[in-house]
Amino acid sequence: MSWGVALKIWYEVRWPTVLFGAAMATILGVFAYVLPTLFTKYGQQFMQIEFVRSIVSALLGAQVGDTLNTTVMSSFPWVHPVVLTVLWAQAISHCSRMPAGEVDRGTIDIILALPVARWRTYASECFALLCAGLFMVTMAWIGNRIGGWFVITEHRVPASILIKIAANTYVLYLAVGGLTLFVSACCDRRGRAVGIASGVVLASFFLSFLAQFWEPAKAVSFLSVMHYYKPLLIVRGAGWPVGDLLSLVAIGAMFSLAGSVIFSRRDFSTG
């Protein structure tokens, strides 16, 4: 890793990352307060509708039954599509910069002309990904804790449980980031890299959602990163989701390593 390259990355991504982090904190804080309040008033009526119950189960990745209890309410903000969209948008935006973004801008020659080995440049990008993900999840954790201050105690997620959810969210972020690094290493245009990575992630989300309704999709749901992200099961007291954490780490590491091989060996052209 090169600290000089890491510092360059910091200057490029600091403000977008701060804005995304602030958005995560705000959204998680609002949801931690609003969702329990609304569900307490109207949740039981809606959960009697089978279609609504199926949708909630699909989003949470597990069956919730016919009652909307505290467990469901406290885990729902972490799987809300808006929260996941912000998290994945930051990861894809961050990891599509290099090398696809540099090739697109015509500055890849400057980057490669630096007295730094390619693998060290790539390692610096991976280090920046780790740091950015930690910041995003920390901001989400802070926002959720602040929002929880304004609801009754039984609707708050205990700190010990929240740490496990945050860890699961962090490795989910890394898996998407690793995928985007790989796609970026294969592309010459940032827009194309963003489009491919976004398409894969959305397809992954749709597969996990569809698996709750369709048996053929359930049989291949292990291909979705969302298959390994289930805050509801964590809140229900299942302990540390070691298998899911390791699976997401393996996915991120596999794609990152594949991207490093491609980045180290391919020829780049800005023409």
Distance between the termini: 29 Å
Largest sheet: none
Beta content comes to under 5%
Rounded radius of gyration (Å)? 20 Å
Number of strands: 0
Helix content: over 70%
Question: Number of helical runs?
Answer: 12
Helix and strand content put the structural class at mainly alpha
How many domains comprise the coordinates?
1
Overall spatial form: globular
What is the helix/strand order?
Answer: HHHHHHHHHHHH
Mean pLDDT: 86
Low-confidence stretches: none
Structure keywords:
mainly alpha; 12 helices; 271 residues; 77% helix; globular
Task: Describe this entry's structure for a reader.
- By secondary structure, the protein is mostly helical.
- The protein has one domain.
- Helices cover 77% and strands 0% of the residues.
- The protein has helices spanning 3-47, 50-60, 70-79, 81-95, 97-105, 108-113, 118-148, 159-186, 190-210, 215-219, 231-235, 242-265.
- The longest helix is centred in the first third of the chain and has 45 residues, at 3-47.
